[in-house]
Design goal:
Strand order of the largest sheet of chain B: 8-5-9-10-4-11-12-13-14
CATH architecture of one domain in chain A: 3-Layer(aba) Sandwich
Pfam families (chain A): Elong_Iki1
Order of helices and strands of chain A: HEHEHEHEHHEHEEEEHHH
CATH class of one domain in chain A: Alpha Beta
Oligomer: heterodimer
CATH architecture of chain B: 3-Layer(aba) Sandwich
Helix content of chain B: 25-40%
CATH superfamily of chain B: P-loop containing nucleotide triphosphate hydrolases
Helix content of chain A: 25-40%
Number of strands of chain B: 14
Largest interface: A-B, 36 and 38 residues
Main location (chain A): cytoplasm
Number of helices of chain B: 12
Structural class of chain B: alpha/beta
Shape of chain B: globular
CATH superfamily of one domain in chain A: P-loop containing nucleotide triphosphate hydrolases
Structural class of chain A: alpha/beta
Strand content of chain A: 15-25%
Subcellular location (chain A): Cytoplasm; Nucleus
Radius of gyration of chain B: 26 Å
Number of domains of chain B: 1
Strand content of chain B: 15-25%
Keywords (chain A): Cytoplasm, Nucleus, tRNA processing
CATH topology of one domain in chain A: Rossmann fold
Largest sheet of chain B: 9 strands, mixed
Number of helices of chain A: 10
GO biological process, one term (chain A): tRNA wobble uridine modification
Number of strands of chain A: 9
Chain lengths: ~300, ~400
């Protein structure tokens, strides 16, 4: 499913890559960017955590003209005055202006590296609202965000993930050479899918899936294992056609067959109907059943 | 008083009548309010109720939603089933011709409106259903229909689906969306937070945050202008206003209760709910609110929110949990907890007969059922043997009979 998300080109996506101190998610983020650049899409990066050179390192130089790095790393708060990009410009209006100044309309992927930095300066409510606004704005094809989930309260991370269409949690694998990604994706119809995969990122930032996680495998295996218990038996459990007919013809003791029922219900000549005409002497008072008692 | 002598023919006629409709008993009612389509008086307390759109949910909460009350739905983690309930609620409004008010901060109300499920109208659906059923019957007849002793033939089947005896509300097909003509016929008003906020920028200091204040104003406006508060003249036909408010309390509404753990006693959401309740109580409207309670860190706030709503149910879906693969739950998609049922005009509320409820989404329908164990067919089923029973009975006696004298059996 991870590859699926990387390759997918449906609009309106909001993907969060959650990492912790144990395992950095920036490589995966770059893998995403690399794939998007190869599809010749425009990628705009709001970079706050690493400088431009470091960020560009490893990306395929043939395709990097689609990449536009908005530098928020050197001067995030605009103290020096020569502002490439600052925190204060994180509004839908400003960002859209930045996106438009570079190129005519093309499908644009916005990458934020990282949202944790943003959350230091803005309240989570504002961040959520602006992200949603950007998503609905229509200028962007998708938003890709890195979030260091162990830096924030659970509620904040939860609120952000609540907005996302896909959440990828990266954690170190058992053997060390792979990274485990727990992916949760929800479609627009409300269907939610989970998957756990081991992946590897090569030198040139191509993500490859090494194995489905062990837990997935065991589930699949147990399903396959369910064999037919009636396969090798020393006695016969199945009925042949003749045998079934014989079985059906047998009349069981306490079963009302249709014939039996109709035979019982048919009025016979001897049996009479009860005709009763109530007369004046009949006392039918339901109110007082003890009416006829002499008390 | 009836005359003591009853004609036999009269008896027969009466019995025939009884066969035709399920009961000849008719409730005496002053049909004054009942003239609104899609409503009926409650069996318990005579309150005017409307359907939630899910028949089994109506049953669980005691017949339906009383007009003037608020239903709280605590969202499941991914908001897929709660959203579905909201859509059912709105679709029921469309089918009954009620007015709608839809508020959301995430998706535009028009988008929600477009996704409403299509109603299953009886005359369309029944022949197809019948065919399927017949085919199945035929199959099973030839193969392995069970022959049962006559005593047991007519026993009612154990019913897991919850439904009241009389029909109220409609059924919907989730796989299709409602006709656009049908949607256009209903009066509806959407409230999309980003649009509303940009239009009115005047801010006054208040305990309510901006989004909730705008929402409350908007609801108040609709209730007054459309005359749901009784201001309209009597002779004009009355109608019900259905309010569907999606995702209240989430960060998108500008509410910080999801992000904050400490709580200083005042929260915008509770203040808003007080206002909303006051509006609902004095008007012909009924509301449904969904709240992402799993995100709200402070339980105290959530408890207050539950108390401020009249009926409260919580959805707990199995998606992504181990329970998804648990054999006990394999037929279901999640659990439904009834947290609160209102006490309206009476001291006790309608208590559901079982608290173990589960919901499932079939191919077309969302239903709530009693959660019960599947029959255990393995050989190793341990049955209590007679001595065991005697033992446990003894234990019971010791437990209950501590005050009873001697070793006599307790006689109930």
């Amino acid at each position: 499913m991870l590859l699926d998300i990387i390759q997918t080109s449906e609009g309106g996506g909001f993907i969060i890559i959650k990492d912790t101190v144990d395992c950095c998610g920036r490589q995966l983020l770059k893998g995403f960017i690399n794939a998007a650049l190869k599809r010749e899409e425009a990628v705009h990066v709001l970079g706050f955590e690493v400088c431009e050179d470091e960020f560009r390192a490893g990306l395929d130089s043939r395709y990097t003209k689609g990449l536009c790095f908005h530098d928020g790393y050197t001067d995030p708060l605009g103290w020096t005055g020569c502002l490439p990009f600052t925190m204060h410009q994180f509004t839908a209006l400003e960002i859209n202006a930045h996106l438009n100044q570079s190129e005519p309309v093309k499908t644009v992927t916005l990458v934020i590296d990282s949202l944790s930095w943003m959350l230091q300066h803005y309240s989570p409510v504002v961040v959520c609202q602006r992200l949603q606004e950007l998503r609905r704005g229509g200028a962007l094809r998708s938003i890709l965000v890195l979030l260091h989930s162990d830096l924030h309260q659970q509620g904040i991370v939860g609120s952000l993930c609540h907005l996302a269409t896909a959440v990828i949690l990266v954690s170190p694998g058992m053997s060390g050479q792979y990274t485990v990604a727990k992916t949760t994706r929800r479609t627009k119809s409300g269907k939610v899918t989970h998957e756990e995969e081991c992946f590897n990122i090569s030198e040139d930032l191509v993500v490859s899936i090494e194995a489905q996680s062990s837990s997935c495998n065991t589930v699949a295996e147990s399903e396959d294992y369910e064999a037919d218990p009636a396969a090798n038996l020393t006695f016969n459990l199945r009925l042949s056609e003749v045998e079934r007919e014989a079985k059906e013809n047998l009349s069981l003791p306490f079963v009302f067959s249709q014939e039996k029922k109709s035979a019982l219900l048919r009025p016979r000549p001897g049996a009479g109907r009860i005709l009763y005409e109530p007369d004046a002497n009949d006392d039918f008072d339901q109110e007082d059943p003890d009416d006829d008692l002499d008390v | 008083m009836e005359s003591p002598s009853i004609n036999t023919s009269k008896c027969v006629a009466e019995q025939k009548g009884r066969l035709a409709c399920s009961t000849s008993f008719q409730k005496k009612s002053r049909s004054k309010l009942v003239s609104i389509p899609g409503t009926r008086p409650s069996v318990q307390n005579g309150q005017l109720i409307v359907s939630t759109g899910v028949t089994s949910l109506d049953y669980v909460i005691g017949g339906g939603l009383a007009v003037g009350t608020l239903l709280l739905i605590e969202e499941d983690e991914y908001d897929s089933y709660s959203r579905m309930l909201l859509k059912y609620f709105l679709a029921e409004g469309v089918v009954c011709g009620h007015n709608l008010f839809i508020a959301s901060a995430k998706d535009h109300p028009d988008e929600i409106l477009k996704e409403l499920p299509a109603p299953i109208l009886d005359d369309i659906a029944s022949p197809r259903g019948g065919e399927e059923g017949q085919a199945k019957l035929y199959d099973s007849d030839s193969q392995d229909s069970m022959k049962i002793a006559w005593r047991y033939q007519n026993l009612p089947k154990v019913q897991t689906t919850l439904a009241s005896s009389s029909r109220f509300g409609h059924y919907y097909d989730v796989s299709k969306t409602m006709d656009s003509e049908m949607r256009l016929d209903t009066k509806h008003k959407g409230f999309f937070l980003p649009d509303e906020l940009s239009s009115n920028s005047a801010t006054e200091p208040s305990q309510l945050n901006e989004g909730y204040r705008a929402l409350l104003r908007s609801i108040q406006g609709v209730i007054h202008s459309e005359g749901f508060d009784g201001s309209i003249s009597q002779n004009k036909s009355r109608n019900i206003l259905r309010l569907g408010l999606h995702g209240l309390g989430s960060a998108l509404w500008g509410d910080d209760i999801c992000c904050k753990e400490n709580f200083n006693g005042i929260s915008s959401l509770t203040t808003f709910l007080y206002g909303l309740r006051a509006l609902l109580r004095s008007s012909l409207s009924v509301g449904m609110v969904t709240v992402p309670s799993h995100l709200i860190q402070n339980r105290e706030i959530m408890d207050r929110v539950v108390k401020l709503c009249d009926t409260a149910i919580a959805l707990e879906s199995f998606t992504g949990l181990e329970r998804e693969t648990n054999p006990l739950y394999k037929d279901y998609h999640g659990l439904l907890h009834v947290k609160q049922i209102p006490h309206l005009n009476c001291l006790v509320c309608e208590v559901p007969d079982t608290k173990d409820l589960a919901f499932k989404l079939k191919r077309k329908q969302f239903t709530i059922e009693r959660l019960h164990l599947p029959p255990d067919l393995s050989d190793t089923v341990s049955r209590l043997s007679k001595p065991d029973l005697a033992e446990s009975a003894k234990l019971l006696n010791i437990g209950c009979g501590s005050t009873a004298t001697g070793k006599k059996h307790l006689d109930f």
